[in-house]
Amino acid sequence: MNQLNGSVVSEFVLLGLSDSWEMRVFLMLTFSLLYSGIILGNLFIVFLVIADSHLRSPMYFLLANLSLTDVCLSSIAVPKMISDLLKEYKVISFQSCMTQICFIHIIGGVEMVLLITMAFDRYTAICKPLHYLTIMSPKICVLFVVLGWVTGVIHAMSQFSFVINLPFCGPNKIDSFYCDFPRIIKLACTDDAKYELVIAANSGFMTMGTFLLLLLSYAFILVTVWKRSAGDVSKALVTLSAHITVVVLYFTPCIFLYAWPFPTSSIDKYLFIANFAITPALNPVIYTLRNKDIRVAVQRLRKQGHFGRLC
Phi, psi at residue 188, to the nearest 5°? Predict the structure, then answer.
């Protein structure tokens, strides 16, 4: 791949999160626990939705898909970050770096479409309850998921096609724990202004557009409920609070990195810990803590002995 774009750089050096040995050991233990929680928590939601026939609704189908994308997104960067924390010299090959970038943006695109779909699902359930099952039919839900993957691939490839042809002829140090377009473009031996504009226009527009669309949809739902219930929006707020929390946690780092000219400090790598580790770990808790259906499903599985057989 590096021969195709005329690059003489065969690997990149990742500077990581900290130079302190004690801090790196602490971070390794912390992120190992978080990653274990991400895998177990999200896969448990997927298992629960598949195993319990009472959870075969559009909302839980979308939630299971969101859990799978969280597992995929975390697995792209977190395992390598954990292993690199104990290494003095942290490197990633050119091919692996490009692959990591590609999958980060594919999965990121899928997650954005899923969050929009889940907002639409809540709008339909709250504002058009009599038509909910017709509008959110199984076929439509599957089409939304397919649309998410198609969008993610187009989103990633439209930027990747520019970056893969850049010449990398010298600088190879990335002040982060993962590869991404903004940092890589800074290392190219060419005028990076036009490429920064392409990435900012693509990822920045997609991130800001999705974030504003989600906020507007939640505001519209609350206004609709307020009008119909004489000002009582407490139930709708409880229903939407989980979605709003996930949206804010997910989009804040993305907006910081992609919505304006590219980073001059290293703060973005700390913000993106939220995307790769914190948000995926919190999602199972956020979406199930106040969810009566999930709690009842867990009790049913326990009574049926599924946990015993699994152990």
Answer: -70, 145
CB 208 within 8 A of CB 248: no
Q: Is 172 helix (H, G, I), strand (E, B) or coil?
A: coil
State the average pLDDT for the chain.
83
pLDDT for 61 equals 93
Q: How is the chain split among helix, strand and coil, in percent rounded to 5?
A: 75, 5, 20
| CA distances for 241 relative to 87, 120, 218, 219, 235, angstroms | 40, 15, 10, 12, 10
CA 142 to CA 128: how far, in whole Å? 20
Alpha helices in 128-233 (DSSP H): 132-135, 138-163, 181-187, 193-199, 205-228
Residue 147's SS3 state is helix
Domain boundaries, the chain: 11-310
pLDDT value at 73 more than 50: yes
Average pLDDT over residues 10-39: 89
User: What are the pLDDT digits (tens) for 218-256?
Assistant: 888 888 877 776 656 666 676 677 778 888 888 888 887
Structure token pair of residue 85:
């924390």
Q: φ and ψ at 14, to 5 degrees?
A: -90, 125
Residue range 11-310, CATH number: 1.20.1070.10
